[in-house]
Amino acid sequence: GRKGIGVLLTVSRVAVFGGTHGNELSGVYLVREKKVEEDGHVSVMSNPRAVQQCQRYMETDLNRCFTLSPEATDLVCDLHNTTANLGLSRIANSDCD
């Protein structure tokens, strides 16, 4: 496998999701500010019903349901927050790993 600190890839299509868990509001605020599609970038309110009710999810936890095709976007950012004292955290997954 490949080893190294990082791989630079061309990213032209980005999807930013906020509100996947309706009680995690950081992503909700960002998506509301940037809810415009431009230059291949799109912001999506993942679960507006859960956001409106301020509940983690309604019938299904959407965090387990992301199924984009490889052609859909180059990068998906699903924004979450927690009350745990984690500091600034990032969890990343890539087919290149």
Task: Explain what the structure shows.
The protein is built from 2 helices and 3 strands; from the N terminus they run E-H-E-H-E. A 3-stranded parallel sheet has the order 2-1-3. The mean pLDDT is 81. With 97 residues, the chain is α/β, with parallel strands linked by helices. The chain has a domain of 65 residues.
Q: Could you name the key traits of this structure?
A:
15% helix; three-stranded parallel beta sheet; 97 residues; alpha/beta
| Tally of helical segments | 2
Please give the largest β-sheet: 3 strands, parallel
Rounded radius of gyration (Å) = 15 Å
* Helix content class: 10-25%
Structural class, from helix and strand content?
Answer: alpha/beta
| Low-pLDDT windows of residues | none
Shape by Cα distribution: globular
For the terminal residues, how far apart are their CA atoms? 8 Å
Strand order of the largest sheet: 2-1-3
How many E-type strands? 3
Mean pLDDT across every amino acid position: 81
The sequence of SSEs as H and E is EHEHE
Q: Estimate what percentage of residues fall within beta strands.
A: 5-15%
In a nutshell, what does this entry contain?
With 97 residues, the protein is of the alpha/beta class.
Mind sketching the topology for me?
Blueprint: E1 14-18, H1 25-33, E2 41-45, H2 48-53, E3 75-78
Parallel strand pairs: 1-2, 1-3
